[in-house]
Amino acid sequence: MTAKLPNTTTPDAAISVEPGFNFAYLDEQTKRSIRRSLLKAVAIPGHQIPFSSREMPMSYGWGTGGIQVTASVIGADDTLKVIDQGADDTTNAVNIRRFFKKVCGIKTTEETTEATVIQTRHRVPETPLREGQTMVYQVPIPEPLRWIEPSEIETRKMHSLSEYGAMHVKLYEDITRFGHIATAYDYPVMVNDRYMMRPSPIPRFDNPKLNMSPALQLFGAGREKRLYAVPPYTTVKSLDFEDHPFSVEQWDKPCEFCGSTESYLDEVVTDNEGGRLWICSDTDYCNRRQAQMKPVGEK
Amino acid sequence: MKPLLDVSNLSKTYGAVRACDRISFSLYPGQILGIIGESGSGKSTLLSAIARQIPADSGKVTYHSPKNGTGEPLDIFSISESERRQLMRNEWGFVRQHARDGLRMKVTAGANIGERLMDTGHRHYGNIRTEAKRWLEQVEIPTNRMDDLPGTFSGGMQQRLQLARVLVTQPRLVLMDEPTGGLDVSVQARLLDLMRQLVRSLNLSVILVTHDIGVIRLLAHRLLVMNCGEVVEQGLTDQVLDDPHHSYTQSLISATLVP
Q1: Along the 259 residues of chain B, how does pLDDT read in single tens digits?
Q2: Which stretches of chain B are assigned E, i.e. beta strand?
């Protein structure tokens, strides 16, 4: 991940870089300061590090935090994949990918195995990650204790003293109201047995994938100006009660397209007569499985 | 008998205003100490300073923790913030005048009681619930209200819920800041009755701040009378109330309506 000036990147890249912009849109000083914050974040897994979030050419809530992190770590020889709700072809994913193609002239891909940097919102790819890959998460609200404690001074104190009992109150309320832990996304985790962290709005289905992942995982919240990270092979434990252990969602039907029974399924309404379809939310995973199936089924 | 808490020469000023002026007293296990005085006499400041919720200017507060095996007294003003917070969770409790300040209004009554248990490391939902239920019974709240929000409770019930929330971890020392303020007389009477029972059965020590002489007469063993940040008189409750020496105490007692 070496950030070079546009005219020193590969010849092919140099052509496609937008004139008048620095490599990866942000200026070198900004990227350096964000990388410094990222180093701190990696050194203290799960701890929120403040950073000087910049104005980006898009509104807050569209992934400005994730984009700044990506811009700071991406190099000319990286391959970028962007997913939104698991899909590579939704508006946000397409536009962020196009943005980086424009300002970096880098290769982009939809395949999880090809990518070296994966920026995401809502999902962790179904395909297992490998060493050397970097996950970048777009985070709306980084503070897990915010729902119970509005004061930033107080939440920082709670973090520094590991006072996390209040977070179990939320799970207690879930069980009391619904009979089970109903928190379906942004499910709080303990990182490295020390810091409580919000894993961004990924479904709790994806929580186990964060644990001991071989990939580096970076989290950026643009509006809240916070960064945090989970370095490779770090323990990430989801909160639970002894008599109500953590569990992931399950579906009683396979994906309609690829037949997978192991992936996270989205419910798609197909018509006004109540027709419904259950399909993989990870489009790359689903496409690949369909491609593998076809030679057997059609030929 | 060794005192549970020693306060010596505690002072706190807000600019030129002397809120607490060299206040000293000792509190023994199982004792209820009443602090009485008019509004602005420094009662609440004293209470907050003892718990180190606001920093005192000078003085010393020493706590002899019965749970502390070594028997070493704790200097409240010099222990670390994490030790202090741990103490506040495990061995001390703070009951506030407005139940809303002491409760989490957005979570159910059961969770309000359970929170202190979860704070101290309990991670078994069933056990937390059983314990919460037991405490609801102790403070005479029907257990079928356990999963209701405190906002749907009456003022008296909220105050009793706050009491249960504080007492669930079985603290040794409870600081109460006008716990009966703003409640009507019959509800007050029930709450006082309940408090007297609990204090006796749990062998609690209590510092009770109030401006209501009736509450003091009913509950407190010893009494401290404060006026303009100073303790003007102290002693056994009956003694002070029946034979007040200081002119302020005399006027305070003569101003009370006797039905």
Answers
A1: 788 999 999 999 999 999 999 999 999 998 999 999 888 888 989 999 999 989 999 999 999 887 766 667 889 999 998 889 888 888 999 998 888 888 999 999 999 999 999 988 899 999 999 999 999 998 889 999 999 999 999 988 999 999 999 999 889 999 999 888 778 888 888 888 888 888 888 889 999 998 888 889 889 999 999 999 999 999 999 999 999 999 999 988 888 776 5
A2: 5-14, 17-27, 32-36, 58-63, 74-75, 92-95, 173-177, 205-210, 222-227, 230-236
Report the SS3 class of residue A206. Answer: helix
Distances (CA, A) of A246 to A47, A189, B78, B120: 23, 11, 41, 21
Cβ distance of A166 and B126 shorter than 8 Å: no
Selecting from B85, B120, B125 the residue whose C-beta is nearest the C-beta of A175 gives B125
Torsion angle of alpha carbons A230, A234, A239, A242, nearest 10°?
Answer: 180
Burial of A121 per CB tally in 10 Å (0-12, 13-18, 19+):
buried
State chain A's maximal CA–CA distance in angstroms.
65
Q: In this predicted complex, what is the ipTM?
A: 0.83
Assess contact for A278 and A250: CB atoms under 8 A. no
- Which pTM does this prediction carry? 0.84
Using a CB-CB distance cutoff of 8 angstroms, which residues of chain B are in contact with residue A156?
none
In this complex, is the C-beta atom of A241 within 8 Å of any C-beta atom belonging to chain B? yes
**How close B51 gets to chain A, by Cα (Å)?**
17
Q: Which among A46, A66, A86, A105 is annotated as catalytic?
A: A46
> Is the Cβ of A165 closer than 8 Å to some Cβ of chain B?
yes
Residue with tokens 């935090």: A65
* Residues B27 and B173 sit within 8 Å (Cβ to Cβ): yes
Q: Which residues of B209-224 are buried (b: 16+ CB within 10 A; e: fewer)?
A: bbbbbbbbebbbbbbb
Main-chain dihedrals φ then ψ at residue A279, nearest 5 degrees: -130, 160
Question: Given an 8 Å threshold on Cβ–Cβ distance, is A172 in contact with B110?
Answer: yes
| Interface residue B121 vs chain A (CB under 8 A) | yes
Contacts of B182 (CB under 8 A, 6+ apart): B97, B98, B155
Query: A202: distance to nearest CA of chain B, Å?
Result: 25
